[in-house]
Amino acid sequence: MIKKILFITGDFTEDYETMVPFQVLEMVGHTVHTVCPGKKKGDKVFTAVHDFLDAQTYHEFPGHKFELNYNFDDVHPEEYDALCLPGGRAPEYLRLNSKVLEYAKHFADADKPIAAICHGIQILTAADTVRGKRLTAYYSVGPEVTIAGGTYVNVAANEAVVDGNLVTSPAWPGNSKWMKEFLKVLGTTIVP
Predict the structure, then answer these.
(1) What order of strands is seen across the sheet that includes strand 166-169?
(2) What is the DSSP secondary structure assignment for residue 101, as one 8-state letter?
């Protein structure tokens, strides 16, 4: 069954955490509306590539420009089946937007599938939607998860954590597991 997925992103979203899930979800036939507050269909957001080069945290490099395919102001969350939140630096400011938080809360309250990766979890913590949930995130977001009432699970960067309809992963190395688990939660079957 084809699902309609809301994909909220913004400037300096992580490139792999944006491009890969968007392409995977479209590849299997789902309708994915990519949006950003203050931008409209056809506008682009800057992405950043985060890489792990033996430093205590990630290095950031310029990524691609990612074109939005839907208007943020035209979003009605009740019309969507699921929510996807990539990471990078975008969630730092996206979580300050009351509509973004309202949308995240809608999906959580309606128990609709939510996929969030890396810093994308910051939107969920700011929306007060992780209370009582087990989830992962980039390790520096772990304290926010705990403060927001969630149980932070420290897993390898290539892993994913599933709690009901919530699917999370620490960083882009987990894209394949994160998307595999999200597709399961969505009820998507791929027949060889």
Answers:
(1) 31-35, 4-8, 82-85, 114-117, 166-169, 161-163
(2) H
Q: Is residue 191 part of a domain?
A: no
**H-helix or E-strand containing 5?**
strand 4-8
Task: Let me know if residue 23 belongs to a domain.
Answer: yes
Catalytically annotated residues:
118-119
Q: What is the CATH number of the domain that holds 115?
A: 3.40.50.880
The ranges of the chain with pLDDT < 70 are none
Residue 176 maps to a domain: yes
- Give residue 69's pLDDT: 98
What b/e readout covers 15-40, taking b as 16+ CB neighbours within 10 angstroms?
bbbbbbbbebbeeeebebbbbbbebe
Residue bearing tokens 């990612």: 66
Note down the domain range covering 131.
4-186
Please indicate, yes or no, if residue 88 is contained in any of the structural domains.
yes
The pLDDT value recorded for residue 85 is 98
Asked whether the whole model's pTM tops 0.90, one would answer yes
pLDDT one-digit tens code per residue, 57-69: 788 888 999 999 9
**Start-to-end CA span in the chain (Å):** 17
Question: What is the bridge-based pairing of β-strands 82-85 and 44-51?
Answer: unpaired
The number of folded domains in the chain is 1
Residue 26 amino acid letter: E
Q: What is the DSSP string of 147-171?
A: HTT-EE----TT--EEETTEEEESS
